[in-house]
């Protein structure tokens, strides 16, 4: 009995030691998203995409044989973002944090990582301030707010011909929710509208938790814009469309900015009212046939796995999130000799992926350290999509478009 006990004890001890050895071989990183609260819908979708990227990477051999594991943090807002970043760095001892979707959360959490000498790898948040603070350890793979606002204004200028007008004759209203995200995008859009020679007839902000936009809509109705550029989350975007119809506010085009306008939930909530509405974001369904064969193969595998995990197609932020984590795993963790901040940062700044490398059609090349926008991906890809017959189609720019622009100007509500 004693020998059997010792044998069993030795076996158990061996299993524990082997488990510890495997754990030491893993690379544990912090992953932070708003998994609860008002932004949880998109936060969970982005996190699911990150999980798919992790599983695909590990099944291919991981980082030189080491699997990537997640220490997960739920951060519904900036206060939790700061606290959870501290926990991940101090208690979980992660060498980097990746995420996070919301600009306010990213700004708060990255203050912690910069102070502690840990890499912050942002995949989605767009506030310009994120990469303009002279921080040495922050990287952003997606576009910034200025790019989104400027793209919306440039696209609006392109629409002038469909109105039978010159850009100078176009009247444009800019509205946005008042978070860091909304203000950054709205300000950039308003500046670009005027720089493009168009008439800025309104420039308004509102709370993203608003439950009634009727006063704003009535003031816009009096200004009579041809186009409204609106930066919104899901709930306020739906509210704006519903109340615009109720108050008979007719506009020639609604150029939405933000994934709230791109989600299937937006279509479900607004129904036929979504028809013809545009959204500026990463492409939800880029012309994959124009991408390199390797990217096409990754896209097909990601799509199958995401659908199996969620029973739905990925939205733009899921594609962006996947691309951000896929790049982190393959270009940083697999190539850095260790997980010190010096090695991770060096690997990040050496990335040089041409356009078309990511599922959105984007490439990756960071603005160099010492530049005003250091750490920003200069090859991020934006698109304009439009709801057409219940589907969100990429319509601009032409290089990645799947359909042509339709329904401009929009018919009055009474005729739809």
Task: Describe the overall structure.
This protein has helices at residues 2-25, 40-59, 78-90, 103-116, 145-159, 180-195, 214-223, 234-246, 264-270, 293-310, 316-333, 341-349; strands at residues 27-33, 68-74, 96-99, 119-122, 138-140, 171-177, 199-206, 227-231, 253-257, 278-281, 383-388, 391-396. The chain is of the alpha/beta class and 416 residues long. The chain has a 7-stranded mixed beta sheet with strand order 7-6-8-9-10-11-12, sandwiched between helices. The chain has a 5-stranded parallel beta sheet with strand order 2-1-3-4-5, with helices on both faces. It contains 12 helices and 12 strands. Residues 1-23 have low confidence and may be disordered.
Helix percent reads: 40-55%
Q: DSSP strand (E) fraction?
A: 15-25%
The CATH architecture name of the largest domain reads: 3-Layer(aba) Sandwich
CATH topology of the largest domain: Rossmann fold
What is the element layout, followed by pairings?
Layout (H helix, E strand, L loop, with lengths): L1 H24 L1 E7 L6 H20 L8 E7 L3 H13 L5 E4 L3 H14 L2 E4 L15 E3 L4 H15 L11 E7 L2 H16 L3 E8 L7 H10 L3 E5 L2 H13 L6 E5 L6 H7 L7 E4 L11 H18 L5 H18 L7 H9 L33 E6 L2 E6 L20
Parallel strand pairs: 1-2, 1-3, 3-4, 4-5, 6-7, 6-8, 8-9, 9-10
Antiparallel strand pairs: 10-11, 11-12
Helix pairs in contact: 2-10, 2-11, 3-4, 5-6, 8-9, 11-12
